[in-house]
Amino acid sequence: MKHEHVITTKGLTRSYGPETGIFDIDLAVPRGRVLGLVGPNGAGKTTLLSILAGMRAPGEGTVSAPEGRVLLCPDVPDFEPWLTAAEVVALSAHMVGEKAGDAEIARALDRVGLAEAADRRNGRFSRGMRQRLGLAAALVCRPEVLILDEPASGLDPQGRVDVLDLITSLRGECTIIVASHLLGDVQRICDDVAVLVRGRLVYQGPVADIADRGRPNAWYLRTHGPVDRLVGLLTAEPWVTRASRVEEDCVHLEAVDADSGELGIPRLLAEHGMPLVSMTGFQEDLESAFLSLTNRTDR
Amino acid sequence: MNGTLYRLEARRLLRTHTLLALVLVFGIFGAVGPLLSYFMEDFLTLADPRGELAAMDFQLPEMTAVDALGSYVELAAPVGTLVVILVATMALTVDSGPGRAVFYRTRVSGAAEMLLPRFVLPAAAAVLAHLAGSLVAWALASALFEPLSPSVLIGALIGGVFPILAVAVVALMSSLMRNALAVVGASALALMLLSGIGQIPALAEWVPSTLMRGPALLAAGAPVGDLLPAAAVGLVGTALLLFVTVNRSGAREI
Lengths: 299, 254
Fold this sequence. Notes:
A: alpha/beta; 6-stranded mixed beta sheet; 4-stranded antiparallel beta sheet; elongated; B: mainly alpha; ATP-binding (chain A); ABC_transporter-like_ATP-bd (chain A); nucleotide-binding (chain A); ATP binding (chain A)
């Protein structure tokens, strides 16, 4: 499916030194979807987000941004400590000319779980509460693009789940760009992912595709009874690079690629009448794909 | 542009009690200055119970209402200006933390929209405090010594240009550096330097720090016109400082 893009960059470069900054970034952010931006520390995520939000100027290249509002929620939002949560949200709305009344402000605070803290001054809020307040202050502005830098990093487990659910619920309401180190979160809430390594965009596409790239080519196989015969059979197969007994009923197997293992293992077991109890991929998430991409680039 | 950020600054002055603190500081100096002058002899007697000064044939000149106003200026000029710098720094160091800077900068159309309310309200509060202090000093000096003409207060009004300039200096420093403590130090240093230049007789008439002495100068018989060159320099300087501030702040990256 082809998506309309709300932000595009062409050859975007902002250098702070030979390996510092971002270089030749061609990014396309699909409208109405959630894009995850991942990369190791110092990969240039903050620089890219700041440029997209208009906080920094590009060195070279172009950024095509929407005419509507682009708001950035930093990882540690900060407000005048003597303002109450409701006043922060009202200030945010009124600064951009949104006529947010008490009902809208209460609704925004309720969406982020801060309804009960509406009349408390934010100076004594925890980091997690301030992150939620930053989100409420952004939502009330009805942004066209909402950029969230590590939105769940300071939250407790329940708060994290709530914020991730909230981000998921915003899909379609506005375009969201999420920078996060928590790859599980990115995999859970994002439609697309962009991977930055040493300032360069090494992957951009649907999360499902990159997760597919990270399909395992190593498994743990459990069968009924001793596995010595199975190890022998597997070792004889040309697509098996390594097979070893881990436990009495468990084999660790590595194949030349994912397809070979996924097709070959069930076939081999069926041919020899050996029952398969379980087959667990050794790596099976975005994290492995991410590590594979970053390591490949590091080399 | 809307009035939201002006209301925010008004709320800051009231809720953080900075307006009250400013008026109190200047008001207290306005009272203490004339009282110190009035009771100077008594204080000296208390400080010299054995009459050693009297034995030295030490003669204290008779205090006047002009001296009382001068005493207020000597207190208010350094300490009051420092308080003005602190209050202005609280409002103007918006970029001291990236979290707050991003909050404002992604919602305003430009640096001027963000910074002007943060200049205007503290400057107005500083002028109000300076006028309150001058009024208290004038009233007490008139009551304790000889009556002073109300026209002396015109000097206080023109003298209000100096606190405005002081806030503009803080604005400039906050566009050059992000750390609030550094902004306070650099602003204080710049205003001390200006005050030092004001001690050069040939330049004194043109240096805005002279303006704080406005009420005392008029009470001593100087014409209002004597204050106008320094006031003009102060206003032009303020406009220039704000122009540079807005440009520097607009170009700043977060």
